[in-house]
Each structure stands twice: as structure tokens, then as C-alpha cells.
# Entry
Amino acid sequence: MSNLTCILSRLASLFARQSNHTRDRKLPYCALSFIFIISGCASTPTPQIVKVPVPQPCITADQLPKPPDAKNDAELTKMDDFDFVITLAADRLEYRRYANEAQAVLQACVK
# Structure
């Protein structure tokens, strides 16, 4: 037996036991409660599917180029002027190579 028929049979048995005066007084309250019960059952929302974009990495850490090893300040101060200029030029070329590799790898992520 469903819940609705169970409720209706209980209400019918209550009305059958009471006198006409009591039954007439409680009828509007029972009718209102029945309407609220039915309307509560009819208003259940249907579940909706919501798609949320989740960021995913397009490259892994091993695909990134390795940054170049540059001389630190202590090593640069020990050099004479000629070696200093040559080292800075070499470091500049290494950083340009690194930047070009990084740009090529990151360009694959752009859509």
C-alpha cells in the first residue's frame, strides 16, 4: 500500500468515527493538510548535470626545457674583462636558446 492510500484510509477512518459537528469543523484543516502534502510531493526538483571546466596541464614537467647554468656573481668578479664579456655573451646566447625552446613548448598549450 502506498503512502498516499495509507494517509487517505486513515483520514477516512477518522471521519467515520467522529460526529457530524466535529467532522465538519476538522474537514477544512484535513483538506488543507492533504493539499500541502500532495503539493510537496509534486515539487521535487529534477537533478541537472552541470559541466565544470577543470584545468589540465597540457605538458608535463619533463617536457619543459632545462634552464641554462649561468655563472654567479662571485665567479664573474674573479674574471678579467675579456673573459667577463665572452662569458656574458655566451650566457646571453644560452638564455635566448632557452627562451626559444620554452616558447615552442608553451605554444603547444595555446588553443
Summary: The chain has a mean pLDDT of 78. The longest helix spans residues 81-107. The two ends are 59 Å apart (CA to CA).
